[in-house]
Design goal:
alpha+beta; single chain; 5-stranded antiparallel β-sheet; globular; binds guanosine-5'-monophosphate; about 30% helix
Length: about 130
């Protein structure tokens, strides 16, 4: 069965898209730790990051680098933190999180954004990509 992220890639479930190419897709996390919390995923459906073939892994990191640069330009923060967990969604995803305090990297602290705020944020980050 397709993962929720494959459904997002296919447009069956909406997302606040940041960027995509033939192999990768990036969009805002719907339940962000901090404003601008973004996910980067390979279109290839693989559960665990270190099960990716090396080329896809390197491509994912290169794409994440570009998204992180766009995030730094778009969201005021001390730096962009990166994390890979994957305990909730079994489809490889890199978390890129604009952080100011350590708690921004903990998945217990959550930020509430309106639909309009998500749209404006995604447009801004996408514009800097
Ligand atoms: P993990 O699997 O690394 O523990 O976390 C999965 C992440 O995916 C969570 O931060 C969660 O908020 C996010 N997420 C789960 N379902 C959706 C969804 O349907 N849309 C978006 N944009 N993010 C989701």
């Amino acid at each position: 069965m397709a993962t929720i992220f494959t459904k997002i890639i296919n447009g069956d479930i909406p997302s606040y898209k940041i960027a995509e190419d033939d192999e990768f897709y990036s969009f805002l996390d719907i339940n962000p730790n901090a404003k601008g919390h973004t996910l980067v995923i390979p279109k290839k459906e693989v559960n665990k990051i270190f099960d990716l073939d090396e080329e896809t892994y390197n491509g994912l990191m290169a794409f994440s680098y570009r998204v992180a640069k766009a995030l730094e330009k778009s969201v005021p923060c001390k730096r962009v933190g990166m994390s890979v967990v994957g305990l909730e969604v079994p489809h490889v995803h890199v978390h890129l999180i604009p952080i100011n305090i350590m708690d921004d990297m903990r998945f217990t602290k959550k930020e509430k954004l309106s639909h309009e705020e998500f749209v404006a944020l995604a447009e801004k980050i996408a514009g800097n990509f």
